[in-house]
Design a protein that fits this description.
Pfam families: HAD_2. This is Haloacid dehalogenase superfamily, subfamily IA, variant 3 with third motif having DD or ED. It comes from Aerococcus suis. InterPro entries: HAD-like_sf, HAD-SF_hydro_IA, HAD_2, HAD_sf, PGP-like_dom2. With 214 residues, this protein is of the alpha/beta class. The protein has 2 domains: 139 residues, Rossmann fold; 66 residues. 47% of the residues lie in helices and 11% in strands. A 6-stranded parallel beta sheet has the order 3-2-1-4-5-6, with helices on both faces. It is globular and about 50 Å long. The protein starts with a strand and ends with a helix.
Amino acid sequence: MKKIVIFDMDGTLLDTEAMYMKANQMAFHEFGRKFPKEDYLQFVGASEESVRLGFQKLLGDEELGNQLANRSSEIFIDLISREAPDLKPRVRDLLNYLQSKQVECMVASSSKHEEVVDLMQRKGLSEYFTHYVGGDDVTEAKPQPDIFLKALEVSGYRPEDAIVIEDSLNGVRASYAAHIDVVMVPDLIAPDDEVFDKALAVVGHIWDVIPFID
């Protein structure tokens, strides 16, 4: 049995990816631009700074990219301040199961550390997690392995003791680069050949990860 499960947050524990996309699309609309879902998907699992740089490249305009990134962040914060995102189906069931088996759990998310802690508290999940790592705790964002290497560092476990639960290609790439087994539970992004090559498994629902932890 694995000793620790490292959860991504956005799109894995919480149904936030649709809210991020809505915030981005609202910001682009304010600036008279379109931001289709196809453009958004490349940023799933990316840190705030990676999104900022991506907007600059997408638009070919550094200043406009910064403005849109800032406005998107403002809109998203407003959205979640008014209503915390829903839990993904059966998340609490899985966390209760892992707690009963004395398997440690932590969160490693591209979102800011403070935001991760706040959302876990607001959703009543804090009791399940021993550690948190946010995108602002590391230098390089997913798909680089830094966030998962940091998770191992703060938890004190070895790669072979851990398993990552992710919803994004960037997360799968980061886990693979950190030499940690990863199971993908797709949210907005369908798995491709690279995912099937690098992930231990792809499952339809988060509850289905149990056989790969036991």
